[in-house]
Amino acid sequence: MRAVRQWTWGGPDVLEVAEVPRPEAGPGEVLVRVAAAGVNPADWKIRSGAVRRFGEPPFTLGLDVAGVVEAVGGGVAAFRPGDAVFGNAVPPNGAYAEFVAVPQERLAHVPDGLDLVHAAALPTAVLTAWQPLVRVAGVGAGQRVLVHAAAGGVGHLAVQIAKARGAHVTGTARAAKHAFLRGLGADELVDYTADDFAATVRDVDVVLDPIAGDYGPRSLRTLKPRGLLVDVRGTGPDRTEVRRLADERGLRFVEFGFTPSGADLADAVRGGVRAVVDEVLPLDEAAKAHGLSETGRVAGKIVLVV
C-alpha cells in the first residue's frame, strides 16, 4: 500500500510517499481502508522531533482517521466489514496511508449525515475540547467560558461544545475570524492583536488554553474565585509559574492531554458538533498540509484524502 513515511526528523520536506506492507488486523483491532486523515499540530511536532513519543523514524504519521472497515481481528464485535468508522490511529503506524489497523476502543461509527472528510477532522481536536470541558470542568448552563485560539482546530470545536451546554462563550481570535466564530455561537470576541484579553475579560468560570506560554498567567486574571484554567497545549513551556500563581490565588489549574476513546468520540459528536474543514489535500501533498498547519492561520482543520 501507499503511505506517507519519514526516515528522519526535520521539516515538511522529510515526508515522502512510499510503498509499504499492508497491515493486518490483530486481536482487538480493526483494519480500516482510509478515506481521509486529519492533520493536527501534533503531527508536525512529531515529524520535527519536538515530540518523540513514538520512537525514532522511520514511521507513518497521522492520529485522525476516517474510512471503511476492511476486516476485523479476533474479539471485535462492535464493528464489521463495510462499516464507516472514525477515530484515533496509533503512530508509528498512523493514518497517512491507504490502510491502518486501529484498536477497536479508539473507534466509533460515523453518525448519519457526517461525511468521511469531516469525520477525519474531528477525533483529536474534538476530544481535546470535549473531554476537558465536559469530563474535567463539567461546563453547564449559565457558566462563562473563555476559549483561546478560538478559530483553530480545537478552539472552534470548544466554542460549539461550550455553547451547546448553555455557557456564555468568549473567544480570542484575529478580527478577520470574528464573523466565522459568531456563526459558531460565540457571544463575545477579543482581537488579541489589538486588545489585551486579560484587561477586559472578567468573571470567567473556565478557560480552555491551547497556547500556554504567557497565556497561562494572563488567563488567571480573567477567572472568578475557584475558577479553572485548563491547559491543553501538550508539550511546550514549563508551567511551574502558572501553577504557583493559581495556588496563591485560590484558582485551579489542570494540564490536560486527551485520551483516545471511541465512546467519548461518539458522545462528543452526538450533539451535532461539526468540524470546519479549511483545506482538503491529496495524500501526496502531506508536506504542503504540514506547512499550512505550521502557520497557525488555519480556520478549522486540514484533511488529507486518500
Question: Explain this structure to me?
Answer:
There is one protein chain. The protein is α/β, with parallel strands linked by helices and 306 residues long. It has two domains: 2-122 and 275-305, Quinone Oxidoreductase, Chain A, domain 1 (Alpha-Beta Complex); 125-255, Rossmann fold (3-Layer(aba) Sandwich). It has ten helices and 16 strands. The strands form three sheets. Strands 3, 5, 6, 7, 8, 15 and 16 form a seven-stranded mixed β-sheet that branches. Helix 3 packs across helix 4 (155-164) and helix 3 packs across helix 9. The longest helix has 14 residues, at 123-136. The chain is globular and about 55 Å long. 49% of the residues are buried. The mean pLDDT is 95.
Brief account:
The protein has ten helices and 16 strands. It is an alpha/beta fold and 306 residues long. It has two domains: 152 residues, Quinone Oxidoreductase, Chain A, domain 1 (Alpha-Beta Complex), CATH 3.90.180.10; 131 residues, NAD(P)-binding Rossmann-like Domain (Rossmann fold, 3-Layer(aba) Sandwich).
